[in-house]
Design goal:
596 residues, alpha/beta, Phosphoenolpyruvate Carboxykinase, domain 1, Phosphoenolpyruvate Carboxykinase, domain 3, Phosphoenolpyruvate Carboxykinase, domain 2, 3 domains, 9-stranded mixed sheet, 31 strands, binds sulfoacetic acid, binds manganese (II) ion
């Protein structure tokens, strides 16, 4: 028996009751609260947070239903070096993941969890990843001592009674154990046990570390489940394009961070295309679960219910739909806060305020050389508030994909867009995709190439070589597979300026992609894949000269030879576990480059 004060559990599920009792014996909370997900409960939690200072109210006339949270200063981002895949063997986790033996991880974290909730309330959060009632949804139960986590989970997932009901008496749920403990980095660990369908996270209250439905469940645990069950959990946005005839087609896209994924997901087409009657619909901005449908196509659905997006740089030019989405019912974390209860960040539509409090709570003015908002400050907002949210975004079946888009930030190497020859070549493109670091990223080394296969480097819950193998084997199961493409919005000219306008104009490239998926669209073969002809991409209304388009689509043989050598180094890290098909794609590419 626990000594925590009693509240009637909202479930009779024996596996949940036993697990909560065991956890509570370890964590020793003063009180246990069973989350029901009602509006009354949410209002109560907000009131508590306003009293403790965990939340501050923003100006309710300007930002109705919006609140502000300031995190601990050492707890502002995911901590990849403290994130572990605790599979039975190190080989199961693979060379791209940190590994800890399960027994060691359980023992170490038990020591930190022991008594960590003394004087606190333990919240039991049931949640669904995926739409309620969908046969493809997965259920998790998260134990946490953070009200900020509960409130964020309420936006990001289908939380509360709806999840208790869907779970029923089933023992099939992901056991997500989280405590802020003392927020000390030396006692911070984010551990995944795919073989036990379990996540233990301690010492952080930050999004990706603490909202365990997101990266931990919907990517790391789900990717391992997907390998067993024959589907894919991917770090992808999903968008729909409606043509002037009202026909809708769908694309899923994976980009490493700092490539504008949320902006692409909420893209507003250029006036030129709006006039013609094109529309873009948003279905998800971060995670997509992909399954083969009864029609032999690949279907995508977004397991999340909200957006947890980077705030700085969000403005009416970069992402007008996000600007509208985050005006109401949004939790702002670590932005600048003004005396009138408004918020401000670098890259806001408004000029900087004369004075405000920065994300650390210190007085700030524009003459200072610090930033008002933390570069990784975040908004948490309900997806349904997005003006471009697709009417069918919660359809349990998902949407059928015409194309999969991979991408990265490369100053000189990859063309604006390249089409793969076939599924296997497309998997090779995804497996070798990379981004160059920018000045905005931590570490300071600008232009360093970081391989980030399918943008899953920090999120794959098992050996990445096996993950490549799983992608290849999925190709044999999809009768009508989507076409795979590789994009680069960030190619630079000799003057170091971007050649392509990006943002809404990326729509022009998406239209060529959809043309190709339907066997249309002018194209030309190149050693690296199929490219658009120089006038295949609609440039109407842009002042983009023919030589610039040629440069955007050019293939530099010497640069590709260097690239292949770098791919070799990356592939070598997987040893003999690397699928032979990827090695043969590499050899075929090298041969084509040599001949060119
Ligand atoms: O940092 S989070 O994992 O919470 C969000 C993201 O990286 O997409
Ligand atoms: Mn992400």
């Amino acid at each position: 028996m626990t000594t925590a004060s009693l509240e009637t559990p909202l479930t009779k599920n024996p596996a949940v009751l036993k697990w909560v009792e065991d956890c509570s014996a370890l964590l020793k909370p003063d009180h246990i609260h069973w989350v029901d997900g009602t509006e009354a409960e949410r209002q109560n939690m907000i009131s508590t947070c306003l009293k403790t200072g965990e939340l501050e109210e923003l100006n309710q006339a300007l930002l109705p239903g919006c609140y502000f949270h300031r995190s601990a200063q050492n707890d502002v981002a995911r901590t990849e070096h403290l994130t572990f895949i605790c599979s039975p063997t190190k080989e199961d986790a693979g060379p791209t993941n940190n590994w800890m033996a399960p027994s060691e991880a359980y023992a170490k974290l038990k020591g930190i969890f022991d008594g960590a909730m003394k004087g606190r309330t333990l919240y039991v959060i049931p949640f669904i990843m995926g739409p309620a009632g969908s046969p493809f949804s997965k259920i998790g139960v998260e134990i946490t001592d953070s009200l900020y986590v509960v409130l964020n989970m309420g936006i990001m997932t289908r939380m509360g009674n709806v999840a208790w009901k869907q779970l029923g008496d089933s023992p099939n749920f992901t056991r997500c154990l989280h405590s802020k403990a003392d927020l000390n980095e030396s006692r911070r660990f984010i551990c995944h046990f795919p073989q036990d369908n379990t996540i233990w996270s301690v010492g952080s209250g930050y999004g990706g570390n603490a909202l365990l439905g997101k990266k931990c469940l919907a990517l790391r645990i789900a990717s391992a489940l997907g390998q067993k069950e024959g589907w894919l959990a991917e770090h992808m946005l999903i968008l729909g394009i409606e043509n002037p005839k009202g026909e809708k087609r769908y694309i899923a896209a994976a980009f490493p961070s700092a490539c504008g994924k949320t902006n692409l997901a909420m893209l507003v087409p250029p006036a030129h295309l709006v006039k013609q009657g094109y529309k873009v619909w948003t279905l998800g901005d971060d995670i997509a679960w992909l399954r083969v449908g009864p029609d032999g196509r690949l279907w995508a659905s977004n397991p999340e219910a909200g957006f947890f997006g980077v705030v700085p740089g969000t403005n009416s030019r970069s992402n007008p739909n996000a600007v509208k989405t985050i005006r109401t019912n949004t939790i702002y974390t670590n932005v600048g806060k003004m005396a009138n209860g408004d918020v401000w960040w670098e890259g806001h539509d408004n000029l900087p305020p004369e004075e405000c409090l920065d994300w650390k709570g210190q007085k700030w003015n524009p003459d200072m050389d610090t930033k008002a908002a933390h570069p990784n400050s975040r908004f948490t907002a309900p997806a349904r508030q997005c003006p471009s949210i697709a009417p069918n975004w919660e359809d349990p079946a998902g949407v059928p994909l015409d194309a999969i888009l991979f991408g990265g930030r490369r100053a000189h190497l990859t063309p604006l867009i390249t089409e793969s020859y076939n599924w296997q070549h497309g998997v090779f493109m995804g497996a070798t995709m990379a981004s160059e670091t920018t000045a905005a990223q931590q570490g300071g080394n600008v232009g360093v190439v970081r391989r980030d296969p399918m943008a899953m480097l920090p999120f794959c819950g098992y050996n990445m070589a096996d993950y490549f193998g799983h992608w290849l084997s999925m190709g044999t199961k999809i009768k009508n597979p989507p076409k795979i493409f590789l994009a680069n919005w960030f190619r630079q000219g000799k003057d170091g300026k971007y050649l392509w306008p990006g943002y809404g104009d990326n729509m022009r490239v998406l239209l060529w992609i959809l043309d190709r998926a339907q066997g249309k669209g002018a194209s030309v073969e190149s050693p690296i894949g199929t490219l658009p002809t120089k006038d295949a991409i609609d440039a109407g209304g842009l002042d983009l000269t023919a030589p610039v388009m040629e440069e955007l689509l050019s293939v530099d043989r010497a640069a590709w030879e260097t690239e292949i050598a770098d791919i070799d180094k990356f592939f070598a890290t997987f040893g003999s576990r690397l699928p032979a098909a990827l090695k043969s794609e590499r050899d075929a590419l090298a041969a084509r480059i040599k001949k060119a």
